[in-house]
Amino acid sequence: SGSLVWTVNNITDRQSGYDLQSNGSTQQIWYDLTNPGYVHAVFCYSAVDDNAWADRTSLYFGSDDNGANWFELGGVPVNNGTTGRSGYPSIIGTSTGAAVIANHNNALPKTTTRASIFIDNSPFEYSFTDYDPGATPNGQGQAIWPLLAINSNDDIILAASINTGDSFYVNTLSGGVFSGWQIYNGDQAETQSLNVSAGGKVGLAWIGGLGQDGDVRYMESTDAGLTWSTPI
């Protein structure tokens, strides 16, 4: 890296009272290879520091000049003081350049706070549709820390973990429809990571849960997360 020249550019002058963005590896910036110069970012923000953070919001920012200058598009979802409170955001993008943001939120019509996926209509349009995967099936708690991966067909693989217990969940959003939650024995609080190869293979690693504490597990999928290899 000694041959690289680093330039630091300020995204926003906002000052946040909430600094915890993730319990694992942050996924807060996406560079769009199909639209050179387009960069998307999302951050968890609160204007107060009162240990309640009722105004906590996932703020979405964009740049069309490789990050030299930035503009704020707004909250995803919008926090109106009653609904829309969100946090722990992740961001990727579609093959058409539209931002894909996941976080846990209480945006309507949800009746419980849980992870969902917001997809913009086009690059920087700021017209997001909320795709709700529904409640998790085993009663241990809602999936609230989402991480994302996407393949060339724009199938979105969602991995999310819970606050307590020994489970994490995987779901696939394809054509606007979720495949359904799959449950795995994993540690709590976002101890998983995933990505997609150029050939479309999904790799997912996580820290094992009950009976597997401290063990790193790994599995692969060749059908966008619908089925997985035996974990190793």
Number of strands: 16
Strand content: 35-45%
Kindly report how far apart the N and C termini lie.
34 Å
Helix-strand sequence: EEEEEEEEEEEEEEEE
User: Which consecutive residue ranges, at least 5 long each, have pLDDT under 50?
Assistant: none
Radius of gyration: 17 Å
Shape: globular
What is the helix content? under 10%
Explain how this protein is built.
The chain is 0% helix and 38% strand. It has no helices and 16 strands. The strands form 4 sheets. Strands 9, 10, 11, 12 and 13 form a 5-stranded antiparallel β-sheet that branches. Strand 5 and strand 6 (99-105) form a beta hairpin. It is globular, with a radius of gyration of 17 Å.
List keywords for this structure.
232 residues; 38% strand; 5-stranded antiparallel sheet; mainly beta
Concise description?
This protein has 232 residues and is mainly β. It has strands spanning 29-31, 39-45, 57-63, 71-75, 86-93, 99-105, 114-120, 128-131, 145-150, 156-161, 168-174, 177-178, 182-184, 192-196, 202-207, 216-221. The protein is built from no helices and 16 strands.
Secondary structure elements and pairings:
Layout: E1 29-31, E2 39-45, E3 57-63, E4 71-75, E5 86-93, E6 99-105, E7 114-120, E8 128-131, E9 145-150, E10 156-161, E11 168-174, E12 177-178, E13 182-184, E14 192-196, E15 202-207, E16 216-221
Antiparallel strand pairs: 1-2, 2-3, 3-4, 5-6, 6-7, 7-8, 9-10, 10-11, 11-12, 11-13, 14-15, 15-16
